[in-house]
Design goal:
One of its GO terms (biological process) is negative regulation of DNA-templated transcription. The protein is α+β, with helices and mostly antiparallel strands. The chain is built from eight helices and eight strands, in the order αααββαβββαααβββα. It is globular and about 60 Å long.
Amino acid sequence: MVEVEGAQAAYRLLDVLSELGVHADGVQLSGMARTLELPLSTTRRLLRVLCDRGFAVQDEVTRLYQLGPQARILGTVRLDRRTLAELSLPVLEELRERSAETVFLSVRDGLELSYVECLRSPQPVQMYGEVGQRVPLHATAQGKAILAFLPEVLVERLLPRLDYTRFTRNTLASMPALRAELDTVRSRRYATNLEEREPDVRSVAAPILDQLGNAVASVCVGAPAYRLDDHRIHEELAPLLRKAADQIATSLFPRVAAASPRRTPRRT
């Protein structure tokens, strides 16, 4: 990419803002400067600008910097997890009843995925997880659903930092493979996990989008592979999940029009 001449300060400010989006739990001034290869004084000055405008905040106790309330317009601020879980629960319960499988509600937490809610299947053989459990982004349907609908500048910061651990022979264990998969996810508005993290386990997930079409969470159905064949994933569960994601988004963001994701340009 060729930078616009004379716009170095603007590029640096956007780099700092993007870096804040990567570190959901906050980042130290020194760590930020080191990652961006900027002088400490420059990084401090840029963070002060963002704090003055509400795009960043500094914790008075830990001194860590995080995204501020104004960053919500960029679609990168985390929702309160309790509010997310409470507003989503009726939809999740209906989804579990209709699918008879385990249902997950998840959010991105830094470079990982974190379960906010997990409703277990009524069936004796089931997929399960614990609230607060952290799992990889690249090897889960939920993680891919979120990554595909984050702001592009944030995705470009996240992808090189994922560890791409290979859990099974189906794991997308490289950045090019994951990029190609994310293009597919954008076109479908749902993601699949075909035994990519655990053998004999499959799942399908849809992103929950805010007013700008950015993913704030994902909703997922998971089950043993023998109950999730391709037909059931694509013809039965994917439409249910897209509908559930739209219903949750409408509860969270009343002005969101159902089934109206942002445009999804293909990356080259």
